[in-house]
Structures are given as structure tokens and as C-alpha cells.
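thought: fold this chain, then report.
action: predict
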Amino acid sequence: MIDNAIAVYCFLDDYLKTIAHEEDKQCKMRNSEILLTGIILSLYFKGHHKNAMTYVKESRLCSHVLEKSRFNRGLHSIEELMDGIFQSLGSILKSFNTQMEYVMDSFPVKVCHNIRISNNRILPLDEEYRGKCVSKREYFYEFKVQVIATVGVVASGISELLVFPTTSIFSILFC
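observation:
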């Protein structure tokens, strides 16, 4: 896991240098480190901020680790930067596909059950997002994730997938 994290950090840091991204001079944790921690918490710690930040601190991947609330604010402040990285990476992966054959699939992701719909802050209150499970006799809020993959990726099982949800992937992964 540490080797993967170092590779991701090198990629993120090089990408930020390539696009001439300027960081705040007072920051204690670089944006590439914040992005790395965000990726680690979504991939390995199921979105649990504190566990991911403890791991990053104990494994010494970052020289300074922010507190949970400061980290969360930093992560939300670079949302556009992360969207740009996903778009660039998607176009690079698309250029490697010479066959131009794609497979598209969609699946629902539950956000909350019926009783918590009014407290939901991820999706707008709209009937379009309401789903129903007849066998369980329950309603819930959901959104659809559209997955576009190359035929070779599906056949080999490699997880180089481009995910395009109907809402921002960033707000769902890191809220």
C-alpha cells in the first residue's frame, strides 16, 4: 500500500508542477499531500477521515498532517483541482484505447433511507432521486453511476474505469 501511495503522490506532485499550480504560502500540508490522503481514505479506509490521517501520520507519508476539520476544509477547497485531474487522467486513458470500443453500464448507489431524506445534504430534494425496493417495502434516495470502460478492461478485470455519476463524484466520496 505504501508503494502505491508513493507512486500516486509522485504523479499528483508532478501534475501540480506541470500545470503551475500555486499553493498558499502559509499552508502546512501541500495540496498533493491533501489529495493523496483523500485518495487513501476513499480507497483503503471507506471514507473514514481519522483512520486515514492516522495511517498517513504513522507511515510518515506526509511531513505534517492537519487536524480532521482543517483537512476536510482543505479537501473541499481543491474540488475543482481534483475534477481537473480526473478529466486529464480520463483523456490520457482514452488516448491509449486504439480500438474505440466501449462498454457502458449503470448501477444505483443508495444515499439514505426514507426517514433521513429530509436531512440529506448530498442530493437535492427531488422525486427523481427517490427509489423503491418492493420486496423490503422501503423507499430510499439514490443516484445512478454511469461506468464507461473499454472492452479490454472488462475482459481482464483491471480497474481502469472512468466513473461519471449524475452528481459530482467529489461531493459523494468526501462528504
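thought: worth noting. The mean pLDDT is 75.
final: C-alpha cells above.
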